[in-house]
Structures are given as structure tokens and as C-alpha cells.
Amino acid sequence: MANTVHILLTLSTSRLVICVLPFFILVHAQNLLVFQPSFLTATGPTVSALLLGDTTDISLHLRTVSPSNTTGGFDSPSCVAEATQWVLTVEQVGKTAVRVQLRLNRSLRLCGKNETDTNCCSKPLCVLEALQVSACVGSTPHASLLIQAEIHAVLVPANTGSDNKTVIPNQVYQPLGSCPCDLTFRACDVRCCCDKDCSIEELKLFVSHCLPGPFGGQVSPAPHYQCSVQSSENSPDWFPFLCVNSPPENNPYLGLFYQGDTITAKPGPSFQTPPLSAPVSPNVYIQGSPIFTLNDKYLTIPQTVLGQCVNSAPVAFLKNFKVLCVTLLRSCPTGSPLKTLPADLRINVKNGQGERLVCEHVTLALDYKFYWRGNGISSIKLTRTVGTISFNDNVALTTRYSAVFLNGEFVGEANSGNPGYQVGRPVIAGSMDNDTSSIQRTSVNLWKPVFDGLCFTAEKKPVLFGENSTSGCLLPVSQQNLSQCNSLRERVTSLQASLLAATYVARSGNPDPLTISDWVNISFVTLDSSTTMEDTTTSCYGILSHQHIHVWTLITGMVDGVPQKEIRALKVSYSLSTWALDCGGGNVAPCVDPLETQLFSITSSVTFTDIPVNTGPPKTRFQINFTEYDCNRNDVCWPELLFPVTKYYTGEPYSQSLAKGLILVFFFVTASILGTPWRQIRQAWHNAAL
């Protein structure tokens, strides 16, 4: 009933808006106050109307009214509010329009029999009253709204469940189908008098029309074996000794015996956040298990989850990570993880619009080193990097968080294959450590631009084996930079050199840092300095704008049918270019303002080349031109005539192919003996004998 009333009210509201439109202009012109509509009939718990006109300094007062016994009219509007069971709310919907809404502040549930709760309806007609809303300026009413409320009670099942479990009773003691006509869960079925969801008031509506028979929960007639059906006319003498005394609810129509059970409803899909269970601290750490503090809480460090940075992500044992989190700052950070300071440290900020904000002691990096032994952690070392940042409106702050697990002082490095490189794994590079006489691992990198694409904010991505790639970043250059060409060249050269800070590259995917034969020297192409050009005030030549890495690979063997590839050589070459400001197309600002910048690209690329395997000496001209016995270019292959009887034939067992070959030889010899040549020999022998 409540849902139907709500729909009717919505339709009335729609008609109300259409009627108000022509009247709104008149009200605005005369600066009057009026409710639209001025009379409403409420059949649901909420009702609303519009107050149009100059609503400045307007106060609304609600009270209950009753019609006069003589005239039938209501009292004049009053600015004295009374306590009612309704809540009055106001919402400004325009400069000269206010939405007034009344909501019933009580339950519409129908009271049960002998129920003492006062927050329910004692009668089916729950609310029957008249309300008056007065719009007053001070103590003078200017407009009034009359509401006639006629609201019926909502029928709620008498025994609403409190959980989501369904209990099936044991049929040995209580039949499963005691009320077959109870078809609707937690609702009263009409004419089903055994339905426990029906209240007393509902049963009174159809108590004289209950469904008969077993479907209605009644057994009519009683089974013939019941002792109550014995009659003196047709009952045998032994009937009293074999008849059954049982309640009428226990009858053959209600099914076989069932031992009973409790069925828990399966939860459906939900968009709500599932409740998280309390963390359980393990006795020992294994790879991947979370690390706990002394108070049994997760040790959390900001990490990347599903592409987003999570500030309170648990740290997993023996799981290294290194992430960069980008946070858009509009004010100085005050909480973790960007503000990880003692309580006695403060941030000095310059106030005022347009002034630069200066934030001191902002955490820029947190690098954890976990020292482990066996299944435990022996110590933790934390390196925190702080700095001072300044900005005007907003700034994108990039912070770094990392965790490295060390067994002693050595980091467990992942290999890129065993033994050969796997496609898609990083190329391993290294540099000689003179103190340990071993090669310290590093990587060969390319540019990985992020956010704005500038080289200062760009990251580096490792070169993946077997995957050609090209990437780059942008460097802002001004006229002032072009006037200092040597400094600009050194600046670009240092940026390109940061991609490859190594002198060796690993031959295979699992190199030994102590075996120099597992590594190949990286060759760098020397730039040609014979061609000289002069710098100008607006251009610089010889800018190392492109770095190319060429890798030669070779298949050295097979492991389980998988070819094993090694790196035989790696060469790094550079391309030079001349940078000059482009002031065409109306963009003359960089050529006028010495501090105005233009973006120039710095690129890097990698190419992998497979070295063909040498299969033998080169073919002669005769082998190239004479193709009669070439099995690759002919349908008939005479050199492989006896191939089925060799050990290289694997189409069938060797014994079978040998037997079939001998049979073919036998047929060939037989055909030769019985054929024309042998017959001619016998004829000649016979003639000579005669």
C-alpha cells in the first residue's frame, strides 16, 4: 500500500510543477507568498509542496487542526507551532521557491494481539488528522497549507526472521508439509488458515473460507487406520488392537520421514566492502606471508595494488618491491605516509593567495632493508629521505617506497633464464667491483615517460630480451640554455648515460658474478669528431639526442625442445642532432623571452638480431643448379629410398619397418627371377644343351 501511495504522490507532484509554471510569474511580479498546492491529501508517510514568492525571513510553523462543529471550516493560520508526529523540512530550490516536506515520525506497523509497544498502529486506519503549515514573517501569517492525512497501517508478518538460515524440521516429530498452502515466504497467503505469517486481523478476513483438506493443513476424511474412525457396523473385531492413534497433522499426505537439516543461504553478489577478519600472526615467516608488529598488526608500507598506490599495504616476507606513488598536492601533507615526522617538528607555510607554499621535512622516500635468516627476520634498516617542496597552486609529488630482503649483505636477484635467456625477461648487465672481484648486477634501461612526459619525472624501464622497443622523453630548453651549448651537451649526455651504467652484459640468463667468461664486454661506438660545426646564439650542434642499443643473439642448444639463446655482442651507438628554437607559426615567445622554453625529445631504442646458425660449407654451383637428387626441391627423393629401414625412421617400430623392407626385397628378387631376363637366360641355356 505504501508503494502505491508513493507513486500517486509522485504523479501529483508532476502535475503540480506544470500548474505552477504560469502562476510563478504572477507571484514573482506581485511579491506574494503562496503554497502550491494549498491543499493536499496525504495517504503515505511523506508529502511535499512548494512555497513561492519572497521567502526572505520566512519561518514555517506546523500544527494539527480540526474542523468546526458548526461551520465545518478550520481556524485561521497561526504562527504558534505545536508538537506533532510529523517532521517538517525545508529545501531551497530557487531564488523565490522553497520545497516544504513533511515526514511521518512513527511506525506504520499494525500492533499484534496483547502487544504493549506504543510505536505501532492499534487500528488499520493508523493516522487520521488534519495539519496546517503556516508561513510567517515574524508573528504574522502570510500563507498556509492544509493537509488531510489518511494513512493505513502496513501489514508486517508476525514472525519475521532475524537471520538468513532456513530450518527444515525433523519429520519424525513434525511433518515437513504441515501447511502446504503456505506458498509465500514471510507473507500471509489468502485462505491459508495454517499460515503462521498471517496476523489475527488478517485471519478474520477469511476464517470462514479456509482451504480444506491436506493442502489447507487439514486431513479430511481421517485415514481408515485411525482409531477414531471405528464404527460398530463395519469394523472387525481385531480393529482396536491394530488401529493407530496419531494426531491428524501426521498423515500420509505429508511425505516420507526426513531427518531435518539447517540450510544456510548462499550470499549473493554485493557491492559493499566485505568485512575483514582480524590478522592472525604466524609462528614462523614463509615467503609471501605478511610481516607483523609486536602488537599483532600488519607492518604496512605504501605499495601499488591494481595500478593504484595504497598507503597501508602489508609487507610480504621475501617479496621485494619498488614503487613510485604520484600524489596531487593542493596543500601541505599532514598525515602518513607523506608526513612521517616526530610530534615536535613543525611545517612553516607562507599564507596568502598567490604566495608560494613551502613545505619542509616532507617524506620523499622510504627504503626498507629486511635482513633475514632461515624463517625469521633478524633486523630491519630504514632509510628515510626528506626534503622541502614549494609550489603555488598545486604540484604532483612523486614519492618512492621500496623493500629489499637481504640474507647477510646479498640481495636475491632473479635470473632471466636457465641457462639461455627467456623472451620477455630483463637483459642482465653488470659492472666490475674491484673490492670483491665480482660483477655487480645492473640493468640496461630505456626511457619510460610518466605524467607530463618530461625527462626529469621520467622513469626507466629495463630492456626485455627479444623485444624491440623505442621510447623517449621531453627536455625543456630555453634561449638561455642554447647560449650555453657545452653545458647543454653535457646535460643531455649525462641523461643518456644514466640509462646504461654498465660495462658488461650477461651471456646467459643465469650468469655467475665470479666467472668472467659468463659476461661480454659492451662496446660503445666512438663519435666522429672530424665534422665540426659552430654553435650560434640560437642553436647548438652535436646534441646526443638518440641512443641505440644493438644486441646480437645466437641459439646455442636445445633443452627439452626449447632453443636456448645467448647474447654474443651488445653495441651502443648514438645519433647527434642540432637543436634550435622554432619561432614559426606565431609562436615567437621562446625567441623573445630568454626563459621561455620549448620541448626537445631525447629518445632511446633497442634492436635484437638473431645470428644465423652455420649449417655447413656453402653450396657449389652444381648443387644449386642440379636439382634431380635434391629432396627439398623434388617430389621423388632417390637418396632416401631406403629411409624406412634405417634407424632414423620413427613412423613405426624398427622391427616392423625392417620386416617390411625384407618382404619388399623378397618380392623384388622373385620378380627378377620370374621376369623376362631370367626367362631369356633359361631359354638360351636350354638351346645350348640341345
Automatic annotation (TrEMBL):
Keywords: Cilium biogenesis/degradation, Glycoprotein, Signal. One of its GO terms (biological process) is cilium assembly. InterPro entries: TCTN1-3, TCTN1-3_dom, TCTN1-3_N. Residues 161-261 form the Tectonic-1-3 N-terminal domain. It comes from the Eukaryota. GO terms for cellular component: MKS complex. Residues 284-406, 417-577 form the Tectonic-1-3 domain. Pfam families: DUF1619_N (PF25752), TCTN_DUF1619 (PF07773). Part of the tectonic-like complex (also named B9 complex). Belongs to the tectonic family. This is Tectonic family member 2. It comes from Mastacembelus armatus.
